[in-house]
Write a structure and sequence with these properties.
Elements: H1 10-18, H2 22-29, H3 32-35, H4 37-54, H5 91-126, H6 131-142, H7 146-155, H8 161-188, H9 191-198, H10 203-211, H11 216-239, H12 251-258, H13 267-294
Helix pairs in contact: 4-5, 4-13, 5-6, 5-8, 5-11, 5-13, 6-8, 7-8, 8-11, 11-12, 11-13, 12-13
């Protein structure tokens, strides 16, 4: 059987022009990863760094804290791929194990700051009586540069990875809280929330059924940028001696130890700086890809 004849009238031509072309339909069926290369590249690089951190003992490394004075400042070789530092420690092993500290700090700060900021933002945006007090508190914390606030907090405590995480988290919470508050204020005016209120929905149901799920998109994107910022801040704190103890191999500690030998042994600074740059780039690319996917205004452009 043959179908009806094709309508070539002006109205039929307009209808045909409005239909998506086969190429457009095929593009729409492509996986999200292929339509957003930044998400693919960022996710691949970050996965590689996570695997390096997890399997550090199996990647031909030695004890990153083992001192060998007789082998100090050796050039790269089969025994020491990146050479050795001023104490004879293997730079390759220290850089590989340093990935664990940076990724741990970045992930922990992102989760803690997102959780605390989410709670404060929900309360501030949904309860007008508490909003002025909470936002003035957040404004006061935001008036202090994050790195200075972290340094001040670390000066009051002893150097450890846990204290570094808490110090950086406190500096990042206000930004998350203000973001969530802005989203909640916008959602309160949406028709589906007004309809739920008119239907007699209680406050807990409004928050957890209608408001909270709609904050996960922007919150996820913000969490990736927080993780990248936290890794840089941790490296800065360790570089100036206010972060993790020197006995713990972290990229900031390695760069701090190598700055005095920059002209003689630039690899001590270059290798950890390179790994830090790649990791931060991967997290930022991942955040850009998530933003493109989760932003409703970009869905039609994907």
């Amino acid at each position: 059987m043959t179908g009806p004849p094709l309508d070539l009238s002006p109205s039929g031509e307009a209808l045909a022009a409005s239909l998506p072309s086969p190429r457009a339909r095929q593009k729409g069926r492509r996986p999200a990863l292929l339509r957003h290369p930044s998400l693919l590249i960022g996710g691949t690089l970050l996965s590689l760094m996570v695997l390096i951190a997890l399997f550090a003992p199996d990647l031909g490394t030695t004890d990153p804290t083992a001192i060998a004075p007789a082998a100090r400042l050796r050039p790269p070789s089969a025994a020491h791929w990146f050479g050795t530092d001023m104490l004879g420690r293997d730079i390759y092993s220290r850089v590989i194990y340093g990935a664990r500290v940076s990724l741990e700090v970045g992930a922990a700060v992102a989760v803690l700051a997102a959780t605390a900021g989410l709670g404060l933002g929900l309360v501030s945006g949904f309860f007008p009586l508490l909003d002025p007090f909470l936002m003035r508190l957040m404004d006061g914390l935001m008036s202090i540069p994050p790195i200075l606030l972290a340094i001040a907090l670390m000066a009051l405590t002893r150097g450890s990875v846990g204290n570094v995480i808490l110090a950086i988290t406190l500096a990042e919470v206000p930004r998350v809280a203000r973001l969530v508050r802005a989203v909640v204020l916008s959602l309160r005016e949406r028709p589906f929330v007004e309809a739920a209120i008119a239907a007699g929905a209680r406050t807990p149901r409004l928050l957890f059924r209608h408001i909270l799920p709609n904050t996960f998109g922007p919150l996820s994107v913000q969490a990736t940028y927080i993780a990248a910022s936290a890794m840089i801040t941790e490296a800065i704190l360790s570089f100036i001696g206010a972060g993790t103890p020197p006995i713990i191999p972290s990229w900031g500690n390695i760069m701090a130890e190598g700055r005095a030998l920059w002209q003689l042994k630039p690899g001590i600074v270059f290798f950890p700086a390179f790994f830090l740059s790649v990791t931060v780039l991967a997290v930022n690319l991942l955040g850009d890809g998530l933003r493109d996917i989760l932003d409703p205004r970009r869905l039609g452009q994907g």
